[in-house]
Write a structure and sequence with these properties.
Number of helices: 19
Strand content: 15-25%
Shape: globular
């Protein structure tokens, strides 16, 4: 199955976490990995490990027939020069997930595993963690992997190996993995995100729909686009879940109880009040995890046990602190408008901290829907003006403070460092967040929630969303009672 790689060079495009995970399996197969990357530091690191390297400019004049395969990191776009050249020369291009699938099918590291695939614009990580928790409760050797942090190849190489993989996959990963046929796969929801990468919502949704190619496909019926994918599903059987009374063939909620009517006549799985995180989004994720695990015959009592044991991870609607009757909540993981919507609707009176990189997503519908809950808004980051304009149109009475990233005293050295290195100086980002938190606190009174739900990606200012969340939490911990309500 992978014999065509033996004795041949394989180009590894991207020296990140997924790129590193490819090296040992390629060598185990008998292939010779060659690393390319756009960063000189990354190539130097690969070279120090004894790997052959090929800087991208050198590949412009290479003889592509030397490579049996190109394996790309998921973030590399199809129109990247290296990948486009490979395709033009007739060299197959796989993603690391596609390669992992074939490694598993080839039984390179033991018996073939059951893959439970989770995708969607929002809720992937929570659903993956819930799925893994249920599998643990049932005593099934399993691991959570993929986009959640652990590369699938590293999971396959574990000893003793897992029997089931709870695999979180992004739209990028699915785009590059056309062969994956999971035992069960779910599309939680589909909203505008990564449109700059995919070129439009239709292509983005099509990538997500690749989770619905296996034995059981699962879709979120409360989301119109995800529900629509049920009609295009190529799974042998497709079911749905909803936060409401389920029909036959669905999972849902009746009188505060999660109910399975897809895999049995009717089975109570858990109480809504037992689910973490609380609220509609958490319940939807729990139903999805339940559907995936029921698809491989996990008993209802283990579904409940696993869901009760699961606790929400950091930066996902996590309460950082209560001060003077004001709650400060970190939902830095809300990296797109759809996620921010769910976060804001979970609170009655919100001082909203938002901004970053919208990645082509629109905010008009979000702002219009949540306007009545907004007490004030503090904006930062590259696309703050876009959000400010939407607020001016749909929530003109709501006070809006738009911070200038560079408008801070004491930032001279940080700005100089940024000018010299050409990369963001994270001291600036932390200073902006500290000011954003102070300004938000000034609008807050008892019963209000200061909510970091940026609706945008973090990479214009922070290393990632976890850095953004930690920066928010650190600033919140510095607040004093007198910081509250100064603008009221």
């Amino acid at each position: 199955m992978l014999e065509f790689l033996r004795g041949r060079e394989v180009l590894v495009a991207g020296w990140g976490v997924s790129g590193r995970s490819l090296i040992a399996p390629l060598r185990d197969i008998g292939a010779r990995p060659v690393v390319t990357d756009n960063g000189a530091h990354a190539l130097a690191e690969a070279a120090e490990l004894g790997l052959d390297i090929a800087p991208a400019p050198e590949l412009e004049n290479t003889d592509w027939s030397r490579f049996a395969l190109v394996i790309t990191s998921p973030g590399w776009r199809p129109d990247s020069p290296v990948l486009a050249s490979a395709v033009a020369e007739g060299i197959p291009v796989w993603g690391d997930v596609e390669f992992a699938w074939w490694v598993d099918q080839a039984r390179l590291y033991g018996p073939v595993r059951k893959w439970l695939v989770i995708t969607g614009t929002n809720g992937k990580t929570t659903t993956t963690a819930m799925t893994h928790s249920i599998l643990r409760a049932a005593g099934i050797p399993s691991v959570a992997c993929g986009n959640i942090g652990l590369p699938i190849l590293d999971a396959l190489r574990r000893s003793p190996g897992p029997q089931v993989l709870a695999v979180e996959l992004s739209s990028f990963q699915l785009h590059w993995a056309p062969s994956v046929r999971p035992e069960a796969g779910v599309v939680l929801n589909v909203a505008e995100d990564h449109l700059d990468w995919h070129g439009g919502l239709d292509a983005y949704a099509a990538a997500k729909s690749r989770a619905l190619l296996g034995r059981i496909g699962v879709v979120g019926l409360d989301d119109p686009i995800a529900a629509g994918l049920a009609r295009r599903s190529k799974a042998r059987r497709t079911i749905g879940f909803r936060i409401g009374v389920p029909a036959d063939g669905e999972l849902g909620v009746v009188d505060g109880k999660l109910l399975d009517r897809a895999f049995t006549k009717a089975a109570i799985l858990a109480e809504s009040k037992e689910i973490s995180p609380p609220g509609p989004a958490g319940i939807a994720d729990a139903l999805a995890a339940a559907a995936l695990t029921r698809a491989i015959d996990v008993a209802p009592q283990f579904v409940r046990e696993g869901l009760v044991a699961h606790k929400v991870g950091p930066h996902r609607s996590a309460l950082v602190r209560e001060l003077g009757g004001v709650e400060f909540v970190d939902d830095s993981k809300a990296t797109n408008p759809h996620a921010a919507r769910s976060s804001i609707l979970g609170h009655q009176h919100v001082i909203w901290l938002a901004g970053g990189l919208l990645k082509g997503a629109g905010v008009e519908d979000l702002v219009e829907e949540v306007a009545e809950r907004l007490v004030a808004v503090v904006l930062f980051g590259a696309d703050a003006p876009v959000i400010a304009a939407a607020l001016a149109r749909h929530a003109p009475e709501v006070p809006v403070l738009e911070l200038d990233t560079r408008d801070h005293s004491g930032m001279g050295q940080a700005l100089m460092n940024e000018a010299i290195t050409g990369t963001p100086d994270y001291d600036i980002a932390d200073a902006v967040m500290a000011r954003a938190v102070r300004e938000a606190a000034a609008f807050a009174g008892p019963g209000d929630t200061v909510l970091l739900a940026p609706a945008a990606a973090s990479l214009d200012m922070f290393t990632d969303y976890t850095h953004r969340g930690r920066s928010f939490a650190a600033a919140v911990e510095e607040l004093k009672d007198e910081d509250l309500g100064r603008r009221l």
